[in-house]
Input
Amino acid sequence: MATSQGFKPLPQPTTSSSSSQSNAPQRAPQQLRTPSNRKTIYDRNLNRTRTAELNRASFAYLFSEMVSYAQKRVTGIQDLERRLNEQGYPLGLRLLPLILYREPPRTSIRPNRILPLLQFIHGPIWRHLFGRTADAIEHSSSANNEYMISDNEPLVNQYISVPKEMSQLNCAAYVAGIVEGVCDGCGLKAAVSAHNGGTEMWPGKTVFLIRFDEGVVEREGLLEAKK
Output
């Protein structure tokens, strides 16, 4: 045969597609992008953003979306306020250690008494959230375990339009959830609710009613007796 008389078999031609695939550089798997300085948000000092402010328009949009989300599948106004309260509660638990970390060393002590806790909420907590302190702290004359913190112009209510049929709704229930989380984080368990307390001068005034558990009040009385 011809192949047995010195003929060598020719090499098989390669297709252009196979050659391009073999010569094409292999793409590395996609990874999370990091800044040029190789630092992420977790490397940022917590004190660097202590005076940072959020644009009000951005806050209004985000909060309105939160209210719309909470409004789905609710049975009434109380159910809607409960859901807003539940959304704010985890923020209060996480906000407490952050504020304590940013406080000066001589004042960065977790409050373990009722009055210091209320002053802490009235001052540093409100200042961090809204850029100012709350307007008043009061003790109920009818119930020993009830305290009130008043805000004449709650920021969360300034951009919410409440229909007439829901006039009793107070979206500051979200802030009440934050306050409740702070109280529980300090070990002083309480139930916090927001109530409309509008006056002629302050029509949008909101009163945050803080009801401490009976065990907290009993412990407070024992500590007072030891003085």
Summary: The radius of gyration is 30 Å. Residues 113 and 177 are 20 Å apart (CA to CA).
